[in-house]
Amino acid sequence: VQLQACGGGLVQAGGSLKISCTASGITFSRTIMGWHRQAPGKQRESVATITSAGFTTYPDSMKGRATISRDNAKNTVYLQMNNLRTEDTAVYYCYAADQRSAYWGQGTQVTVSS
To answer: What is the pLDDT of residues 60-96, one digit of tens each?
Structure first.
């Protein structure tokens, strides 16, 4: 299983960024997909999750600012983040979970400047 994340970068506070993750080696349409992030010195935390049926969940910190979506035809999950804050700076990791296991991508850096 491979999860290739891309789209990270540097953005000013208040700006927007869309990152994506393309999966291979799994039956994507049957897989829960999501994003976690980890900032320096902090624990990894959930950012967004989308089920195979398209149901989405977000922590309170991201509600109203993040939208996770998936394109099963492209085996790709997206995370649109708006109104970014400096505290959103972190490495964002894509993950996939099926009945067998959970899988993680290599992460993409998102840096929000003030």
So the answer is: 999 999 999 999 999 999 999 999 999 999 999 999 9
Q: How far apart are CA 48 and CA 75, in angstroms?
A: 17
Which two tokens mark 99?
């009945």
Phi-psi category of residue 3: left, alpha or beta, with phi > 0 → left and psi -120 to 50 → alpha: beta
Structure tokens at 30: 């049957």
**Residue 29 near residue 23 (C-beta atoms within 8 A):** no
Q: Which two tokens stand for residue 29?
A: 């349409």
Residue closest to 50 by CA, chosen among 82, 97, 3: 97
Q: Which residues fall within 8 angstroms of residue 55, CB to CB, at 6 or more apart? A: none
49 neighbors 32 (Cβ within 8 angstroms): yes
Element (H, E) at 68: strand 66-71
Query: Minimal CA–CA distance to 33: which of 92, 77, 90?
Result: 77
